[in-house]
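Bumping my old thread because nobody answered last time. Still need a sequence for this structure:
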């Protein structure tokens, strides 16, 4: 059986958190809920979710501020920003600051499922638990030395690969996936 992921949903709307809880439960994942950025920070002291969904309009501590706080502490977490349809500038700013994807409110179930499925797949790739390797065959080579392998993806330089984690100067959508290191 596949291990479930933890998803932190930061939204001041109780109904919105319930909607996420229902869908994530159907998908087999555990949801952690927070109504404010401060509450989310408290949860992150004791939990390590693989995915964080944050509303950009939060009371007291904006979603953009929350992303700025979170990215240096958890650089590999997959962040999905929630915004209103008329907040495109904030959405672009959230992506620039480290959000991986976004959802627009009011939420459409099909879009919500698609974005969460992609976020889950990305988190699994980062954790090395994905069976999906399509498009990554060219990355496989014998006798790779991961601590000294420079790889350029999407015009960004990946610094090193250490212990199965990708250490990059900038967040990238390209992931090094499913290659083995021969001894």
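Sorry it took so long. Here it is:
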């Amino acid at each position: 059986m596949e291990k479930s992921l933890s998803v932190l949903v930061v939204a001041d709307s109780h109904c919105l958190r319930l909607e996420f809880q229902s869908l994530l439960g159907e998908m087999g994942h555990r949801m952690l809920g927070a109504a404010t950025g401060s509450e989310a920070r408290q949860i992150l002291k004791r939990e390590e979710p693989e995915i964080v969904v944050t509303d950009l309009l939060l009371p007291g501590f904006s979603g953009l501020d929350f992303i700025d706080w979170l990215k240096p502490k958890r650089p590999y977490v997959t962040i999905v920003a929630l915004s209103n349809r008329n907040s495109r500038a904030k959405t672009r700013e959230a992506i620039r600051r480290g959000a991986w994807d976004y959802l627009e409110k009011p939420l459409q179930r099909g879009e919500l499922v698609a974005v969460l499925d992609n976020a889950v797949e990305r988190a699994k790739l980062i954790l090395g638990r994905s069976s999906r390797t399509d498009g990554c065959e060219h990355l496989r080579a014998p006798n790779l030395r991961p601590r000294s392998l420079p790889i350029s993806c999407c015009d960004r330089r990946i610094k090193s690969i250490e212990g199965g984690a990708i250490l990059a100067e900038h967040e990238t959508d390209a992931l090094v996936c499913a290659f083995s290191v021969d001894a």
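The first helix runs from residue 14 to 27. Let me know if any region looks off to you.
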